[in-house]
Write a structure and sequence with these properties.
With 281 residues, the protein is an alpha+beta fold. The chain has one domain (2-273). It has helices at residues 2-8, 22-31, 45-61, 67-79, 97-103, 115-124, 136-158, 163-184, 250-263, and strands at 15-20, 33-38, 86-91, 109-114, 128-131, 198-202, 213-218, 221-229, 239-244, 270-273. The termini are far apart.
Length: 281
Amino acid sequence: MEKIEQALTERPPRLLYHYTDVDGFMGIVRTKMMQATVIYCLNDMEEFTRTFQMLIDQINTRENLSLELKSILLKYLEQISEIPIFVASFSEEGNLLSQWRAYGKGSGISIGFTGEYLNNIANKSKVALRKCIYDPSRHMDLIRILVDQINEEYLVLRSNNDSRSHDNARVVIENNFYSYVTMLAPIIKNKAFSEEKEWRIVSGIDYVDESRVNYKSVLGVVAPYFELPIVGAKGQCAIEEIYLGPTKEPDLAHRFVAQFLEKNSVKWSRIKASLIPYRGN
């Protein structure tokens, strides 16, 4: 896992923005929690499954993989959709028209969280904060690293001729392959969306705390989610900046948002208004 971890580990920027509508913003502030939703219920599943297809192509065309390992990995890829993977999305940019349209219904609010604090929240919750990758050539490099890593581990584990070692090898390879794929697939994104500069909090195979999983409606289906705290044990809050989306009454929106934050004991440094023209009703 070390090679994959090294390839994906990057220090977060000072601020990361979470776009939401006004109801979502109010829920986050009131509960001091934000939600990570199972990825299979989100609207970018095509990108997620594309990673699986790249892996299938890589496995099938690699001459240095044994037929047994190819069979094992392809079987695992068929089963991996049974593993719940949860994500929460952020952007390095706090004022993007495409994001206002997608998440704020043309307006909305983007919440600027401290990047380092988000990283700490993720680590304490046994999930990871990862930067999304848009470069197709890097996609293929990471797929090759993943398959190379699994092959190296497989050859080491299979070097012992004991039958119990062979059985153990399959279990280890299964767990590691699931871990690598669930680490990588949620952050491989189409380059057409590169302006979003997205980061994601991503859960993997090690996240098994069913007691924290709840359910909500997403895109007309029942979707599992779990909550992450935005306030630490000592009362420090991850929110530093608020961006108000396009609105016909920016001054009024600024005043009421500030009052709402104060009423809910949430401290912040700045509230900004988007200068993108409002085109609502």
